[in-house]
Structures are given as structure tokens and as C-alpha cells.
Design a protein that fits this description.
Layout lengths: L22 H12 L7 E2 L1 H11 L5 H10 L3 E3 L6 E3 L9
Length: 94
């Protein structure tokens, strides 16, 4: 999973966000966060935020939610009332 360890604390929480220049590292971190969501389950926006906040130490959970969606790792209804994980995260094979 690349250099994700550089962005995790001892409890497995993301404490730093990779810079734009490190897009592959960003994707690794996003896949890691996506792995915290169950497949075949719907989430409210509030539940998505809670999962993200349990996984990150950085303050901008809205950025992370948006990046998860834009990377195709979570889907959502247009009105944002329902979210779901779209694909298995790469960390599940381990």
C-alpha cells in the first residue's frame, strides 16, 4: 500500500494529508479510509463523517469525504442523503 505508514500514527489514524504532488500517496490514504466502510451498507452523511473522523486526526473531514467521492471509492445520491462504498479497498486482501 505504498508509503501510507508515513501518514498514520501508532493507532492507525491519518495524522497528515499528502500534498497534491503526491497524488499516489493521497490515493493510498483514501483507499485506507475507504476500507473503514462496510460494503453493501448505506450510510447517512452524518455516519460517513463519523467514520472519517474516527480515522483521521486532520480537521478537514469534508475534504476527505469529497476526495473519497471524487476518487470513486464511495458513491452518493445527488442530494447527499445516502452514501455507500463502491469497491473493495486494496487493504482487504491482507
Amino acid at each position: 500500500m505504498g508509503q501510507i505508514e508515513n501518514y498514520l500514527d501508532s493507532e492507525g489514524r491519518v495524522f497528515a494529508w499528502p500534498s497534491r504532488k503526491r497524488r499516489e500517496a493521497q490515493l493510498d490514504v483514501l483507499r485506507y479510509i475507504a476500507g473503514r466502510f462496510d460494503l453493501d451498507r448505506d450510510y447517512t452523511e452524518k455516519e460517513v463523517n463519523a467514520v472519517i473522523l474516527d480515522t483521521i486526526l486532520i480537521s478537514d473531514y469534508c475534504l476527505v469525504r469529497r476526495e473519497l467521492f471524487e476518487a470513486g471509492l464511495i458513491g452518493r445520491l445527488r442530494d447527499g442523503r445516502r452514501y455507500w462504498r463502491t469497491m473493495p479497498a486494496s487493504d482487504e486482501s491482507q
